[in-house]
Design brief:
Layout: H1 4-11, H2 25-36, E1 47-52, H3 55-61, E2 77-83, H4 91-108, E3 112-117, H5 129-137, E4 144-152
Antiparallel strand pairs: 1-2, 2-4, 3-4
The structure holds flavin mononucleotide.
Flavin mononucleotide binds at residues 13-14, 16, 68, 71, 114-117.
Length: 176
Amino acid sequence: MDSLLMALIRERRSIRVFDTRPVEEEVLSLLLEAALRSPSSRGRNPWQFIVVRDPICLSALSEVKPHGAGFLAGAPLGIVILADPAQCDVWVEDTSIAATYIQLAAESLGLKSCWAQIRLRDDGQEGMATDVTREILSIPDRMEVASIIGVGYPAEEKKGHPKSDLDYSKVHYEKF
Ligand SMILES: Cc1cc2nc3c(=O)[nH]c(=O)nc-3n(C[C@H](O)[C@H](O)[C@H](O)COP(=O)(O)O)c2cc1C
């Protein structure tokens, strides 16, 4: 059995090296539409998204934590995903689903992406990556930053994980 979505899921990989080609406005609007269509607990939609295309700003964001955000400096687009925890107790789940929707929509449009984790990550200088991100992007204190999705046209190739790598021992039927 196959489907368009299954084909994308099979090919999907995290890509961290991007072409300089900008993400077109109409393509960006589809990514944002996908994010805003993502399901959320009780339909509260607690997320907010900040579109970052300024290379200086992306470069600053690439340094909010010591490891794992460096690729943002070479990405033409970063989508910062944040939420107001007062709006929903499961905002972490809601923002994660929105991130996944963005990543799969990107994949379907010929773009590639990678997730940079911000929530709970330290800044390498006894502070938190969230606070540094808040400062760079003028985010109010009540908002929590979940992640930044770096998106662009790929300048590296990776093959999808082969089916033989999938660990079906993690799947249980009826009981653990
Ligand atoms: C919750 C989460 C957090 C992640 N954080 C980072 C990160 O901070 N930096 C990074 O380069 N990749 C990050 N990734 C991407 C993973 O490293 C990647 O998905 C994993 O190594 C598997 O590789 P693949 O996506 O190519 O299959 C994150 C992925 C998830 C789902």
